[in-house]
UniProtKB/TrEMBL annotation:
Hydrolyzes ribosome-free peptidyl-tRNAs (with 1 or more amino acids incorporated), which drop off the ribosome during protein synthesis, or as a result of ribosome stalling. Catalyzes the release of premature peptidyl moieties from peptidyl-tRNA molecules trapped in stalled 50S ribosomal subunits, and thus maintains levels of free tRNAs and 50S ribosomes. CDD domains: PTH (cd00462). One of its GO terms (molecular function) is peptidyl-tRNA hydrolase activity. PANTHER family: PEPTIDYL-TRNA HYDROLASE (PTHR17224:SF1). It catalyses: an N-acyl-L-alpha-aminoacyl-tRNA + H2O = an N-acyl-L-amino acid + a tRNA + H(+). The record marks N26 as: Discriminates between blocked and unblocked aminoacyl-tRNA. Its EC number is 3.1.1.29. PROSITE patterns: PEPT_TRNA_HYDROL_1, PEPT_TRNA_HYDROL_2. This is Peptidyl-tRNA hydrolase. Keywords: Cytoplasm, Hydrolase, RNA-binding, tRNA-binding.
Amino acid sequence: MAWFRRRRREDPEVAQNTWLVVGLGNPGAQYAGNRHNVGQMVLDELAGRLGAAFRSHKTPSRVAEGFLRPGGPKLVLAKPNSYMNTSGGPVSALAKFYDVPAERLVVVHDELDLPFDTVRLKQGGGHGGHNGLRDISKALGADYLRVRVGIGRPPGRQDPADFVLKDFSGTERQSLPNLLADAADAVEAIADDGLLAAQQRFHAPS
């Protein structure tokens, strides 16, 4: 772990306003469009807004960094190279590398228990059967922030494990850009205004 100590020191004010945003998913082109990878799709939206590109990182993950605006919060966007079920190791390594506490770690993930096109925010709590969250909580504790991106329940008797590993339907894909934009807005609101203010904005009845 010696490479943690070799990281270039940042300005203390920047370090105290740095947010680690992790998008969960599975690596590889065959999974890129899956519902389970919606967290990483949200990070692509955020990286586009920041004008940042994902690059290989030693943690191991792919990382993009940028500021919301000059003098504003810094976002470290990270996509673990591991499969969903083993997300804990890379996320723990990222948190140590960037020296980010749980209250500035935001995990963006798919959520079966929310209707499609819904975004909800929370801190802590259980994993709800989500294996990525389960592994992160095992490695770091459960007090990190979550941006929960609703994908809905599978129709009929379809196995949820199969459902999350399928691409969004044609109808869903028409609304998907709006969903990704809303989730990216939620991440920015957390970093800018804090969790409570972001919840009041995104949980308000439409």
